[in-house]
Amino acid sequence: MLSKVPEVTVWFWIIKILCTTVGESFADWINVGLGVGLNMTAVIFTVVLAVIMAIQLSFNRYVPTVYWLAVVVLSVAGTLYTDILTDSLGVPLALSTTAFGVVLAVVFAVWYARERTLSIHSIVTTPRELFYWLAVLVTFALGTAVGDWTLVLTGWGPGMSVLLPAGLILAIVVGWRLGANPVLSFWLAYILTRPLGANLGDWFASSSADRGLGLGYGITSAIFLATILAAVVYLTVSRSDVIEPPQDSGSFAVSTNAGRERIMLGYYAGVAGATIALLVWAAGQPHATPASAGEEAGGSTSSVALAPGQATVNFPSQEVSKFRIITHDALTKVQSGDHAGAVARIRDLETAWDYDQASLQPMDETAWSYLDGQIDDALRAVRASSPDTKTQKQTLGTLLQSLQ
Fold first, then answer.
1. How confident is the model at residue 306 (pLDDT cuts 50, 70, 90)?
2. Is residue 6 within 8 Å of residue 62, measured between CB atoms?
3. Contacts of 62 (CB under 8 A, 6+ apart)
4. How far apart are CA 226 and CA 137, in angstroms?
5. What percent of the chain has pLDDT over 90?
6. Model-wide pTM > 0.85
7. pLDDT tens, 164-218?
8. Residues in Cβ contact with 84 at an 8 Å cutoff, skipping those fewer than 6 apart
9. d(CA 275, CA 281)
10. Please, is 166 exposed, middle or buried when counting C-beta atoms within 10 Å of its C-beta (0-12, 13-18, 19+)?
11. 214 by DSSP, 3-state: which?
12. Do residues 142 and 267 both lie within one domain?
């Protein structure tokens, strides 16, 4: 069959980065906006993934709309699997990052042992395509774990967090242009597009108080989705990313310089070492992280004080009820000693609050800031590396009272 994947052009990278943001936002909308929950959302998207992959595998050529839809769904599924490990099962991000890294290495090893190539230009048989999609799924899960772990270590805000994956991708482009192995360069960049896309979306959506652009998740998702659709339509019409059939009997060998590849492999090792040193340094700097900030004090970080019921009077009752239910669930899990469940539920609260920020904040800036401070306190208390049940109950109880 013809190549089942697109040529790696600038359009490929643009759409790939945007897909990570749209996919994650859509998952959050189902998980929290519709109240489906993390585990059920994962089940839903696993079923959807199976259907989309069946359609993708049924074609004998690259079809832009189906291919990129598969990428979006894989992005959602990979993210959800990592979130389940972290939020529902309490697996440390360091462990999940290591585990997904090992799984990806095994996938590549088996793929290469069977097919003798990992090149994206060689996806012309069903086995190779299956290996390709499995690798893509694991890269999304790994990229999610790496990105989340980086944020936990550094405490960087939305804008700052974009710079690291963007800088690393730029370093990979430089390495590729100087003679690094193209297949290795491709997969390294592919993994890094996941944290880049997610951080970019957070930067666009987060409020100015959180050092974001303040567009909100709804507007951000709409902008990114419109850009993806425009790009896919262009590629469908122009066919500029279609890989033409090879002229020979099927050789997909890439002409490279082995000596230069070894030199650039050392360059990549140097970039990795510098990145680790940067993260170690950033982790040692004073910053507010879920593991430390606000752990001792249970009071709200907001500078205003509102009476119970006053904070929600200008907000839609349906939205307030949603926040109240999630907070009550988290408090119940804390009281029963279910720490992993409380962490998972508090993440639902964070996602729901961020998702509704664009609509709620203009309704009552003072009340929104007041509740935002109390939610931040609750997040820090529940996610603390050394949880204090008393502080957790106090912050969640205070928030629940404000949501009356």
1. low
2. yes
3. 2, 3, 4, 5, 6, 241, 242, 243
4. 24
5. 28
6. no
7. 999 999 999 999 999 999 999 999 999 999 888 878 877 887 666 556 777 766 6
8. 38, 39, 42
9. 10
10. middle
11. coil
12. yes
The domain in which residue 396 lies consists of: 310-402
What three-state secondary structure class fits 290?
A: coil
What single-letter amino acid sits at 249?
S
- Per-residue confidence band for 157, with pLDDT thresholds at 50, 70 and 90: confident
Please identify which residue in the block is written with the tokens 């697109």. Answer: 6
The C-alpha atoms of residue 10 and residue 189 are separated, in whole angstroms, by 13
Amino acid at 344: A
Give 34-90 pLDDT, tens digit per residue: 667 778 888 999 999 999 999 999 998 899 999 999 998 998 888 888 888 877 777
Q: What are phi and psi of 6, to 5 degrees?
A: -80, 160
Inform me whether the pLDDT recorded for 249 exceeds 80: no
Q: Are 146 and 73 in the same domain?
A: yes
Using CA atoms, how far apart are residues 2 and 61, in angstroms rounded to an integer?
5
Place of tokens 């989340």: 148
Judge whether 306 and 367 are in contact, CB under 8 Å: yes
Residues 262, 347 within the same domain: no
> Does 333 lie in the same domain as 232?
no
- Per-residue three-class SS string for 257-316: CHHHHHHHHHHHHHHHHHHHHHHHHHHCCCCCCCCCCCCCCCCCCCCCCCCCCHHHCCCC
The band of 246, judged by pLDDT with boundaries at 50, 70 and 90, is low
Judgement on whether residues 96 and 234 belong to the same structural domain of the protein:
yes
Tokens encoding 257: 């310089």
Task: Say what the alpha-carbon torsion angle 141, 144, 146, 147 is, to the nearest 10 degrees.
Answer: 170
List C-alpha distances in Å: 142 to 259, 336, 394: 30, 32, 35
Is there a single domain that holds both residue 321 and residue 176? Answer: no
Element (H, E) at 146: helix 126-154
pLDDT at res. 30: 73
pLDDT at 257 over 70: yes
- In a domain, residue 1? The reply is no
For residue 230, with 0-12 CB atoms within 10 Å meaning exposed, 13-18 middle and 19 or more buried, which class applies? exposed
- Number of compact structural domains in the chain: 2
Residues 6+ apart with CB under 8 A from 279: 150, 153, 154
Cα(190)–Cα(108) distance, integer angstroms = 14
